[in-house]
Amino acid sequence: MIGDGALSLEPIVVAVVLAMAVVTYATKTGGLWLLNRIEASERLEAALSVLPGAIVIAVLGPELAAGGPAEWGAGVLVVAVMWRTESILLALCTGVVSVVLLRGLL
Amino acid sequence: MENETETNASDGDATGDATGVSGSTDGAEPVTFSWRGIRAGLVTCVPVAFGVAGYGVAFGVLANQVGLSVAEAALMSALVVAGASQIVAVELWADPIPIAAIVVTTFAINLRYSLMGAALQPWFKRLSASKAYGSLFFMADENWALTMRDFRAGNRRGAFLLGSGIAIWTFWVASTVVGALAGETIGDPAQYGVDFVLAAVFLALAAELWEGRSSLAPWMASLGTAVIAAEALPGRWYILLGGLAAAVVEVIRHDR
Fold first, then answer.
1. What is the mean pLDDT of chain B?
2. B65 lies in which domain range?
3. What distance lies between CA B64 and its chain's CA centroid?
4. What residues in chain B have per-residue pLDDT under 50?
5. How many domains does chain B contain in total?
6. What is the ipTM of this complex?
7. A56 close contact with B: CB closer than 8 A
8. Could you report how far apart the first and last alpha carbons of chain B are, in Å?
9. Are A61 and B226 spatial neighbours (Cβ–Cβ below 8 Å)?
10. Backbone angles phi, psi at B193, to 5 degrees
């Protein structure tokens, strides 16, 4: 593996990457494309308005459920720091440092 | 951080620093697409992009471990720009490459972006197709959330997604290269807490997106659905299902 050049581009790998790029771009644009073609009702707009928070929670739920006390403790600290300081960078650093420390302790 | 009250000759319209009091998120004012919008997105997103970079190093390390060259890993990050699906793809990587499994899984994991893109529609429908669909190439979880936040605060800077996306893209590709180059010496990323970066970013964003009690019912619906679906289904369908469950709850509440 070390013998392989860092700059080598195997055709088959490039083809798989291109296919991944195409389907990903289709998912990123598909929702807007569809909504631009149908009339968005008030109900649909109500539904769309809760998506940001709901998607964030849907990502987090299983992630935290799969974790243990170290992840949960660090998670509480992230939210606390975010509420107090509104600094994403500070919350992020707190989370990463505390999860490492808590994993060592617990 | 942002000088929203300056007038801007390039797009000629007042940008939305005062639109928050207009009472409508969908008023008559146009959505701008200017350098100032790009810059605002970029500046706002750089701290988050540092977090994304932690994740990018992890991706680079994994890509290196399954035998991708530095150039191949960087190409994937530059063209796909979707972290979770890239990490799963390299976890599926084998010899011979399971092409169909990788492409289908990538699609399934990223289908949530259709919901995210749909949520941008009230503002993006006012942009030209090339600007809207060009910006969406750079949409990732983190800068999408920041962009929604900016729009909902009453700003109408259509270029915010592009600016914040450029920040994400740059850090994502650069950190992939770092991870792929350093792969053999870094070892397991979990020992540095890098695996916790995404959860931390999303927790921070959740803390910001919380709108009080009106968020509770849709969020509980999303949480319950996602946790159950994550157990029952492969891939990342649980994200899509969680979002849809919350949308259904909100529509029921809206109808009452």
1. 83
2. 27-209
3. 24
4. 1-26
5. 2
6. 0.76
7. yes
8. 41
9. yes
10. 75, 10
